[in-house]
Amino acid sequence: MGMGPLPLDMLPFGEVWKDFQAENWIKENDPTSGSSRYSLAMARVTRVDYSLHTVTLMVLSGEKQSAVIRTPIPISYPGAGARHFLGAMPTVGSYCIIGYLPTKPSRTPVVLAWNIPNPWLGHDWVPAQDFKATEFDLNFRKQSELEGVKGRNRHKLRHMLPGHIVASSAQGADIHLDEGVLISDRRGDEIRIREQDGSLVFRSQQQFHATGGMRQYTGMVQRDASFLPVTMFSDGKRWDGPKQTQNGFPLASFQLETDYVRPDGILTPHDVFRRLKPGSAFPDSNYRIQQGLDPYLFLQNGLFIGADGYVIDRDLTFSDGEYNGKPIYRISADNPDSGLGRSANSSLDADTDTLVEHRIEVNHTWDGRLPVTEQTDGFDADRLPPAVDNGSPLTAGEQPFIEWVLGSVVGNDPFSKPGRALYGKPLVASVFSSDGSTEPGLSSGIGVNVSRHAATLFRLDPPVDNNYLPTFTSFTKDGRLKAYISGPPSQNSIEVATSGGILVKAGGAIDLRTGSPLKIEAPSGDDVDNFGFCFTSPTGAICLTAGAATTRGSTSARTAPDGFEENVLPGIIIEAPTSSVDITASRNVKIAGGAQIRLENTQEVLITPQNQLTMTSDKISQQCTTIDKTVLAKETVLYSGPKNFNPSNTPLRSVTFGANPLTGHIGGDTDVYKMVFGDRTETFLVGSHTTNVVVGDMTYQTGVGTFRAQAGTNSISVSTASGMSATVLVGSMSMTSITSATLRGTTGVTVSASAGTARVSGTTTILGGSGGVGGILNGSDLDPLTNLPYSFFGLGSTGHLLGPPIP
Q: In CATH, which of 2.60.40, 1.20.120, 1.10.260, 2.40.50 is domain 31-115?
């Protein structure tokens, strides 16, 4: 009967066999050299060379000894090639699964996949470290020394459900695909395609859109086109010097060598473009560079540097606000009372209020190039001036011909002559200058009250003619409108038609000024009063002023000198060809003419004041065929003069009736005066009254009453009742006729003298009765028969003295 195999410890060489077998098992299972040496291993990244895409790994498992350092190891990606790439750059502290390639003399590690250590740490954003928090002070120097060996990380991982796809960067940006799409950055700016309501949502502090010939700026007002990274210019330090470390630690900036070749403030481009002498024809590299690519040329065109290569203005070129190499300058509200301006500090501080805008700029044409702006590439190459002249830009590149801004209007032209002075400054729109002349444009709002700053702007720079001023409309921040409409002067700048009415109500004055005629045409009137044109000012006045006369009229009227009657062309015409014109005022109506006021071409002129008609002039001339005048109450006429206090300017009144047979007057009444009832009184205080009738009669006739003429106390009175009497109290009364004089009374004639002698004389004395011839019989006369005096017979007059005629 046979026996089974004996145990190893019973064999004479059992111990040796046991050791041999154990050693073979160890070698066979050695993860470094055994049959499992090509199995997978877990490693942690301690260093990343992002330029060569390699990592240094600390192998944590799968090696005979723990913490084996493997370097350099190429990074594997899900997809990559000569021209395509899909992958992520790892960070220090990342965990990966590695495999091994069977190469000689040793195996080569290969990164196969990446592992998430403890996902719950990332879900809760929990920080983890390889040491206790109280173990030592983890300052920046310690972090640099221990980088890759020990570190502290805050884990981050979005929650994922089955079927989700997530991409996250270590810096904080994410792409999350579930039923929707979410793309977000570390600050929470996001683009979201929301499936729930079919929405596309953008959320960010700033939005910059650049397309062919169009730009859009939305968000806080940011102006970066005049700034360049400070690393483009030398600061006097040799940053690329041979000595960079001391005792294994990086040198501080103040320990770097001084750059004697590139002094402070000079441009330091790549060695291909570098010129130790900026004015030289070629770079030091002897490469021929196109002018559009030579930084010494296009930066000079943009007024960043001078011809010597030095920066022109540090304050305008270097921004004190910079993030990740990108200069940032935002316009903040420093002092609203004195205006908004370029503050000394950038408004990166979250507590600083920043102006906001929604700006769209559209070019007239585009050449199909990809736009390059200060927000897309950090440098505004599209609007860079092509040349400079004496340190000033001649013009700019592609300029927008349409600008549309909502919010705070801030200058956004960094290169052209008018735009550079306003770049980054709040703007004020104006149409008129202080003297009232038209000067439309935009100016700086620095020092101007914020209420006058532009809150909106629509600006169109006509691309058809450079002589046309830009058209713009702008509302100020206190709600006022400023607008200027450009265009050819020979054409209408505004043409508006509405199917309904237009209602305009102004709380203040309306001032319309035009360089050409202002024409308003209303074909029909309203339904109430048939008013086609109505000016109403319930509490104010209305003024119409014309500075020149119309040219409508005859040639003689248009060319006659001032003062001539023919020069009657009006400056204001009010016509109603088929109706009447009414001018009504509750108080006064004043019509003043420097030369004449003419009322003509009418059938009748009626002046009917309710109380009084007053006419005052240096001279009044009247000419008509017939004057009918009626005074219902009283007429008072006062003649004062003479004219100009000149005694020769007399008489004060002259009335002439020039009617004669040649004018058709054959005689009869020429001037008729009739008083129906009442008295007429004429008073001459000093002066004489003379009436002279050359041919004709002068008759004073009273039907019933008394005709009386008086000079002092002497008077003549003829009465229809008492007869006629003449009384001379002072002086003598004389009646003389060159032929004969008759004194006759029906009942008697008395010639007497109350004192003195009453004389009747003549060449002959004949006494007789009625119808005879005779004289006065005196008592002293002798009777021819008896030769005795008549007094003897008791005859003859005793009261008459007869003598020779008085000569």
A: 2.40.50
